[in-house]
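hey so u asked for the seq, here:
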Amino acid sequence: MLRSAWSVLLAVVILPPLGFVLLWLRAGTRISRKLLGSLAIASWTVAYLVLFFGLRLQRDGSGIPQPTFYDKEAHYAEVERSRATAAPAEPAKKEEAPAAKTEAKQAGGIYWTDFRGPQRDGRYNETAVSSEWPAKGLPLVWRQSIGGGHASFVIANGRAFTIEQRRRQEVTAAYDMATGRELWAHGWDGEFQESMGGDGPRATPTFHEGRVYSLGAAGELRCLDAATGKRIWSRNILTDNHGDNLQWGMSNAPLIVDDKVIMLPGGPSGQSVVAYNKVSGEPVWKALDDKQSYTSPMLVTLAGKRQILVVSASRAMGLEVENGSLLWEYPWKTDYDINVAQPILFGPSKIFLSAGYGHGAAAFEVVPADGKFQVKELWANNRMKNKFTSSVLFEGNVYGLDEAILACMNAETGELKWKGGRYGYGQVALAGGNVIVTSEDGEVVLVKATPERHQELARFQAVSGRTWNHPAIAGGMLLVRNATEMACFRLPASK
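ran it, structure tokens below
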């Protein structure tokens, strides 16, 4: 009876593996029918996992689909439940409360206020960090669920700010550094969806003088009070400047320069780079016609000239702070018009660039000439391809992910020193003379910053799932997040 056609069918519906076993144990059924039945069970098994367990195909950084179990509705419900409670998801033990207060004080300054740190270069220099990490990984301060998206954190006054997707809203939120507890959340209607890169906002907010400047994936720019989350002003940079959104969404972190906030809407007819008044939100100037990229603008001094450094879809360029006029340019065009990596400055006038999709890296120098500037290429090769990550510089050498493998390259010559360590399409930062890698799988890895060889010092699992978000560091605390989870760890102080 257990092997009758109806019992097999019922077993297939309720528990497909059991149905498969009963099918092959059933006497009197031809092999051809068992094979066809097995194919039908396999198809139903996939549907079963999709419907009841959230099976999805998620692309990794190479574009290869990977199976993952993710239930969007359950995830959002978990975020809402955790925010409805006053305590963090993993509260510190009572005896650890004094340490939590100390950590909050340590991270209470004004330091990691921009994407990838104060200079947007991925370097952490606020406190000395030891390279001797516990064998089981860095001490966990707290762990919390979080909404979707690929933004990082900025940290100031004991608070961590980020932007995330919660159902059909983009939400900028402030979290307490000591506990992970949400302090405020400011949302607006917006849901950017993209099958290859994933859903949600991309651009890391910026903290400046008590305000948070936050950009959504569809161009919504909001200036918020950092203490309360109250909206001060808002504009949509794409609507304002007749710009088309990029395939993977607006990703440029707002840049504050003097009284201006610099944005890259990529609009036509002189509306590619735009400066708004940081207090009122009114336009100050607009410039250029470039299609924009995913790289964030930077305030730099090159060849003695203070300027805005921008990498568009086709070139790197320096712009006047006051009016956005072009000072110099260097062609930097990649397949599909995709530039993501932040430039690296070395020396008083030299710049390192890198891009994926088979492009590679190059270095050039900006040279004063008759009251203007000229660009001199130093070298170019395909040995460092930052696809959607950025490299860091330490003692004349560049450390970064060449596609999915960590590599070291001399900035002056382009000579490859070594290549080793497969971390996927993650991110890198620099602290205490060592490279901190967040792997694509959510591991945190410490690698010695030396041109001699690849030397891994420590490794542990920080968060679960695909992790493309850049880490943030302030007051000796390391923040890591992805599209579902965030965690805070204590870095060991150098003795």
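The chain has six helices and 35 strands. The radius of gyration is 25 Å.
lmk if thats what u needed
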